[in-house]
Amino acid sequence: MDSKIDFASIIVAVCVAGYAAIMLAYVAQNDLGLSAVQTRHLSMITALVVALPLALDLVRSPPDETR
User: Which member of 39, 40, 59, 67 has the greatest number of CB atoms within 10 A?
Assistant: First the structure.
């Protein structure tokens, strides 16, 4: 079964993610009073928490196993 991903959908997803990141940074700096360094550290920790389980799942599963 071949799945095709639309190029326009990828572009829209990247743009929406970028806009959400800009809005979250604005709220963190202006409303919550966090500095740019604090925002950067929190975003790096969050990215690790989100990406680590995904990467571990990909490494653990055998390559011939499909879901």
Answer: 39
